[in-house]
Amino acid sequence: MAPAPDNAAADLNPESPTLEKQDKNTTKHFHWPPRPVEVASPLVTDHSRDASSTSQKAGRFAATRRALAEIERVWLQPTRQPLAVRMRTTGWTPDHPALYCEQCGLTVGAYEETEFGCANCHNMRWPWDRFVRLSEYDGHLAKWVKEVKFERSRILARDLGALLGKQLRSAGALDQSNKNLLVIPMPTTWRRRAARGVDHALLIADAVARELQSPLQIALSRRHTPSQRAVPPSQRSRNAARARYTLRRPERLLGKRIILVDDVRTSGASLDAASRAIRRALDPLAAPPRAQIVEIWAATLGSAPDPARKMTLSKQQQMTSTQHLGEKFQARQSPSCPPDS
Ligand SMILES: [Zn+2]
User: Fold this and answer.
1) Is cis: bond before 288, omega within 30 of 0?
2) Average pLDDT over the chain, rounded to an integer
3) What percent of the chain is modeled with pLDDT above 90?
4) By the 8 A CB rule, do 124 and 117 touch?
5) 238: Cβ–Cβ under 8 A, 6 or more apart, which residues?
6) Cα–ligand 1 centroid distance for 226 (angstroms)
7) N or C: which end of the chain has fewer CB within 10 A?
């Protein structure tokens, strides 16, 4: 360790002979007091610094760095946190199946759901046989879904799709052979895909199919209509009907359990129209003597909460309430998928 100077004040004096001696012997550009060190991004270049720089070599590399930054911005995915890390840091988990109605997908409280549906849907007849979701479309999940749709986060779409696949598995989608399972994404139009730069439903459905080790088939197509979020709730059924969903090669779907995948169920009008299109195309084919039962499961990342529902229960309250439910829910006490499984 170097010995302490005899006179520290003398060392800080610019006219000190000690400083002059150090200046001559060590560097030509010694400044006192020291200037703050400027830290530059390895890819993003400050153009004003380039202009004032006298080094031609630095200027050449600056152009390269600018090109790399542009390639990263346009062609590569920005660095994003994996879903497992987000779940650990936020504490978010997918819902237990007892927390939502298996007919309509809306959140239910204790004793609110029966075999005919919940208070929201017991008078309705859905064209699907079962509904599976990750969670209510709110909070963290809503933020992540928007990141997938509007920031083209393909990695997050695949992570969420894999988690939905695990949720489907725990709901019993694979109780038959997975050879009878067929995953179909909700279709989008080329105009919307071009505008967004990503077919998010296809990415999610692909991850679901991989998780369930089942085939993926792009079997549905549709006409372009305004987004469901752009029309009032009262007109969404009519808007979905205008989309005119069409099923390609319906004979390949006979005898299958179809998993119809979308990102969010808002009013349910789009999923309803697509499921009815599948039923319409298959019913004539499935008639006797070729009777083959077709089962449709609707699966979404989130379902929009019912705005008419005034009382909302926290997850913890609902989990406590479900302990009093009957044998139907007691049989489903297997926990939801852990983040890293
Ligand atoms: Zn319901």
Assistant:
1) no
2) 76
3) 33
4) yes
5) none
6) 27
7) N
Distance 65 CA to ligand 1 centre (A): 55
In DSSP notation, 238-290 reads: HHHHHT--EESSGGGGTT-EEEEEEEEESSSHHHHHHHHHHHHHHHHHHSTTS
Phi and psi torsions of 247, nearest 5°: -105, 125
CB-CB contact of 86 with 102 (8 Å): no
Centroid of ligand 1 to alpha carbon of 106 (angstroms): 6
Assign residue 113 a region (left: φ > 0; alpha: ψ between -120 and 50; beta: otherwise).
beta
Tokens of 166: 């695990």
What is the distance in A from the centroid of ligand 1 to the CA of 104? 4
* Spatial distance between the Cα atoms of 197 and 295, rounded to a whole number of angstroms: 32
Distance CA 95, CA 135 (A): 5
Strand intervals (E) in 5-84 = none
Tell how far the Cα of 294 is from the centroid of ligand 1, in angstroms. 22
Structure token pair of residue 78: 């920005």
The CA distance from 200 to 206, in Å, is: 10
Q: How far is the CA of 86 from the centre of ligand 1 (A)?
A: 30
Instruction: Calculate the CA 106 to chain-centre distance.
Output: 19
Q: Measure 309 CA to ligand 1 centroid, in angstroms.
A: 12
State pTM to two decimals: 0.68
What burial class does residue 187 get, using C-beta atoms within 10 Å of its C-beta: 0-12 exposed, 13-18 middle, 19+ buried?
buried
Residue ranges of domains in the chain, CATH in brackets: 83-330 (3.40.50.2020)
Amino acid at 26: T
Residue 35 Cα, ligand 1 centroid: separation in angstroms?
66
> Ligand 1 centre from 298 Cα, in Å?
13
**Over the stretch 1-41, which tens digit does the pLDDT of each residue have?**
444 444 444 444 444 444 444 444 444 566 676 665 554 44
